[in-house]
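Hi V.,

You were right to ask for the full record rather than a summary. Here it is.
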Amino acid sequence: ILGSTDRHTYAAAFSPDGRWLLAGTFGANTDFQCCLVDLASPEPALEEVTGHLPGSFYEPGPWDVGAAGFYVRTTADDGDHVCLARIALPDRTMTVVDAPGWDVEDNVAASADAGTVLWTVNQDGRSVLHGRRTATADDNATANENGETTVTLPSLPDGVISALTLSADGSTAALLLDSSTRPPEVTVVRLSGGETVRYVSGTRPAALAGPGRAPATEPELHHFPAKDGTPIPALLYRPAGPGPHPALLHIHGGPEGDARGAYNALFQCLLANGIAVMAPNVRGSAGYGF
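Predicted structure:
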């Protein structure tokens, strides 16, 4: 079934009722579309379902309640930034869920009952967690027109979230959190009361973990004007102690990609030896629009 197109095609998720297979198809990294396969059909076939919508980027996400629709990451809102939207079935209309003016990352998770949905946004190089859930009688918040309310989320360390999943009841999230002072670690986040954030793995180097060790350095976010006045963001890592310090200008690879607040052993080694690091996100960096 999935080989019946001349584009690269992959399976994304089965609908909760088992009838539909959601798939993605792409010809380039800015050219994604969503497809459905009706598994109840005598002759299941791949059918594109987002080609009639504006824009050319529709990356499939999880299903929502009762297979009534599914979530997508798309640039359809402003044509430049990746927002989160929902495609409704059977009419296949689209509703924007979150258009923050930054890129929604490839981290969109729904609970087993699809009552809770979480996603992350790349905001100036750090992952910011967002969430919504189906409103209940116990919620002390006004629901929107879709019967949803925002999820109160605990504060997380600045860093990069590279994986995200939800418990079946939507009360707990597990994520892979990579911060400037801690390499990627599995972190559990409770969304309602009790202990809110807990690291369940330990990957910190011994040089940073023990008493009397040199602490890892967190970056400062700065913006400096380009020749035409456009603000260029940059992460500045300062060594401990008084300056002046020698400095390394670190330009990330590409043509896409971006400097982010993730753990970088080279940076920490340079900082421990009194060398500052400036990591700019030059024009064309990912996360700042297509």
